[in-house]
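Deliverable D4.2, example record:
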Amino acid sequence: MRRFLPALFCLTLLAAPVRADTVMVAVAANFADTAHEVAKAFAARSGHQVILSFGATGQLYTQITQGAPFEVFLAADDKRPKRAVDEGYGVEGSVFTYAIGQLMLYSADEDLIRGKETLIDGDFEKIAIANPEAAPYGEAAVEAMTALGVYDSLKAKIVQGQSIAQTLQFIKSGNAELGFVALGQVIKMQGGSRWMVPQEFYRPIRQDAVLLETGKDNPAATEFIRFLQGDEAGAIIKHYGYAREQQSSSNLDGNVKPL
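Output generated by the structure prediction step:
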């Protein structure tokens, strides 16, 4: 089982059996801080425990198809949860949008970012983005730069993180002067400079969740899905700068225990 799980998975749990009151959740890296708070609130309400594992959406989906024991998948796009259902890994009727993300241009340098002019001028050595093949926020970054007409001129300056979490680390460590991250990653950070990229420059980042077939008989997994759709989780998600859609009840088994 070790080869499937990203490094952020707590190693002390690998030797422990998965109990009925534990749910294993694969989470897109941009949602890490938010997911920790949602999981804490869920545990307080339900008594169930959530084991979170983070990574790029594409990498996590590959792990799911290779047999990783995740029971819920919180992606950073709306493509892979649907694909999970289509390919037999996800439960029919369980897909829903849990958050809509916002792309942010961020730098640890308080004087560097002055809006889109910073990208147009290109007065920097390196700009970080997440791998657009694996991370939807990286794909959105490419879309934004293309829409602004600067992608070709900046292409040689791009450094790619394997995930949006690594992208932010490149910026914080100074390996890149600036980069594209998720608003939710930096909303509570002090200092630096930033520009919220207007929605007109990239397609909406609809982040969908899906109950996986491995979790359909686990009450903790189905309850976690329902909790994620509710007002308490919604308030946490909005607090981190994500938009929310009106949630309808997912088409899950009627025997789910009420919280």
